[in-house]
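Q: Can I see a sequence and its folded structure?
A: Here is a first one.
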Amino acid sequence: MSDVGKPEIRFAHVADAPVIARIHMASRAATMPYLPRQKRSHDQVARWAEDVLLKSCRTWVVVRDGEILGYAAVEGDMLEHLYLRPDVRRQGIGTLLLDEVKRNSPDGVSLHVFQQNTDARAFYELHGFTVLDTSDGHRNMENLPDMTLRWTPDAAR
């Protein structure tokens, strides 16, 4: 049996920035319609991915048949981003990325999620994350109510 079609995870490269930007923008538009319309162009988001994201975060991409399907970025013990191409959701791709994040976070990992993002909340809760706190939105640039979730290896056992 060949590995064609089998997703693999690797560290993101600078050359991946334009694709990461495309996934970031498409995923936010498809899964969070309550967010304000994106004001930044693809080139601006790609520059952010290259100059900020890839320099400050450990970033992994999941690749199948040479195509990047999604990415996850961790800064310290905070999962800052986990986004998938909208057309590959609910195929286990997000779980693969999250499992990689967990493997590389021996002391656990936290994240912020919008309270309105019920799909993401259900996904993280399914994977052992628990709510640490909630906020009225003062700590994010969208000013939307959010919550902090945390996964710790001990809690998963």
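Q: Show me another, different protein.
A: A second, unrelated one:
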Amino acid sequence: MGRLFLVNLEGKMYSCKHCSTHLALPEDIISRSFHCKHGKAYLFNKVVNVTVGAKEDRMMMTGLHTVVDIFCVGCGSILGWKYEAAHEKNQKYKEGKFILERFKVAGPNGNYYWTSTDAHVAGSDPDDA
């Protein structure tokens, strides 16, 4: 295995909850109104220091999407997913974008999002969908 090269972000950022690897900047958030099985999730335009899993089709609240899970390069934790393709015309804006589950990351101030026992479990799309 080769040497691990990480992208270091400057200023406030989102990082891996487990190993503090830098992931994304707040200015790259497109939407804060997404949900996943652990509660809130954010849609990002750009994320760094992740690897991707295998492509798979998933039926979500807003229709069928082709996605890949994304993993932290520092510790291997699953962080969310990347939209590879949206099969509904009105969902095409998600293609190439990333979902980070708030439960899996530390916020820009180093704070953690704690899920409640009432976590939303029905899907992984915006509240207003």
